[in-house]
Every structure is written in C-alpha cells, then in structure tokens.
Specification:
about 200 residues, alpha+beta, Inorganic Pyrophosphatase
Length: about 200
C-alpha cells in the first residue's frame, strides 16, 4: 500500500519532525505544551518527543495564552546575539505564546500562528525569548499583525506571568523581561533560531 507524502509511518518528533511553518518567520507552526487551564507545567521530552511533567506550578499564576514552541528552532549563538543581557542561548526550541479568542484546552496541538512580537526574556543568564503570536484566521485576533495592535492588558499579563512563574519563596528570582519587541524584531529572532537549528542539527 502506498501513501502520498508527507506520510509518517511513526509519530514524528514534534521538535525535529515537524515543519517550522507555512511562511516563516511571519507565520509559523506552534506545538502547544500548556493551555491557560493547566496548573502543571508540561514540557516535550527531548528524547522521545512525548510530553513530560516538568513541575506543578508553585503559585496560582497560570499561563494567559497557549504556550509551546516552534519546531526546528534552537536558541543558540544567533538568538543570544540579539539579547544584550544574556550570556548564551538556552539551547531549547524557541518558545511561543498564541492568543486565541475561542478556548483551546488541549495540548499536543499543532496550530498555525502569526508572529506579532515577543518578550526578550533572560533566565539564569540564558536567552529565553517568548514569541507572541495570534492564531491564524482567528475571528477576533486574525487581523493583528503587530504587538502594538493588541490590548495592553494582554501583553502585560504575559510579561507578568513570565516574570514570576519560576519564583520560589526565599530564593532570588533569576528571570527578567528586558524588552517587549515588535513583529519586525520577532521575525529576526525566529530567523536566528532557525539558523541556529540548522547549525546544531542540520537540515
């Protein structure tokens, strides 16, 4: 029996086996690991590609948007070069938050997302940017092309969440948001992460 391409006989690894997206760096695929309803942080296991429990959220704070990563991206030296306050990339795929009007409560979803901006985050001296995007063809947010078109409160919720989500009582918070940037710079970060991926893993 023959199948038309692309056909995967086995489940593809979500980091390495999926495409970056239909029109990178502007429209990309997002593999969703966490929804706004999750009180546990899930993360793709780098070896198997299946979701693993990373940790229960310590505080009552929950992600204000869908959260995951862009396949075939890597935060290496090029991403680090765009982040003046970091010493190195975090060596993970590039994180992405996707805003959607309709509630989506399932993880391990692949969605098309339009890149509109990002947060220049540094975590323990590592570049850990968070790309901000909107769900493609969304009935409410589908017209948005730049972060300046989003309500300020949505961006502030994302900034607050990532500024505090790793805080532990009695310990110094080593996570900081140094800049909120627009779609043009976000495109540079996505492109840099794609080039870092090519250097680290090949095509």
């Amino acid at each position: 029996m023959s199948f038309s391409p692309p056909f995967y006989r086995w489940r593809p690894h979500p980091w390495h086996g999926l495409e970056v997206g239909p029109e990178p760096p502007h429209e990309v695929h997002a593999f969703i690991e966490i929804t706004p309803y999750d009180l546990v942080k899930y993360e793709v296991d780098k070896i198997t590609g299946y979701l693993r429990v990373d940790r229960p959220q310590r505080t009552s704070s929950v992600s204000p948007a869908l959260y995951g990563f862009i396949p075939r991206t890597y935060c290496g030296p090029r991403v680090n070069a765009l982040s003046p306050h970091s010493e190195r990339g975090d060596e993970d795929p590039l994180d992405i938050c996707v805003i959607s009007e309709r509630p989506i409560d399932k993880v391990e979803m692949i969605i098309n997302a339009r890149v509109v901006g990002g947060l220049q985050m540094v975590d323990h001296d590592e570049a850990d940017d968070k790309i901000i995007a909107v769900l493609s063809k969304d009935n409410i947010w589908g017209h948005v092309h730049d972060i300046g078109e989003l309500p300020t409160v949505l961006v502030e919720r994302l900034r607050h969440y990532f500024s505090t989500y790793k805080m532990n009582h009695g310990e110094e918070n080593r996570t900081a948001i140094h800049r909120i940037y627009d779609a043009a710079h976000a495109g540079k970060v996505v492109r840099a992460s794609m080039e870092d991926y090519e250097e680290a893993f090949g095509s």
